Amino acid sequence: MKSIKIILALTTVSVITGCTYNSTAPVSASYDVYSNYSDKIPGRYALHIEGDEFSGDFKPQGYNCSFHTFSQDAGGAFSQSVVKTFENLIDYIEPVEYPLDRNDISMRGLDGQIIVKAEDMDVRIRVIPGFWSSEIEADVDLAANMTIDSMNGRLLGTTVSGDGDAITGAGSACGGGAEAMSLATSDALEELMQRLGERLTNSPRVRGI
Question: Where do the H-state alpha helices sit in the chain?
Answer without folding.
Answer: 2-17, 75-87, 102-107, 176-201, 204-207
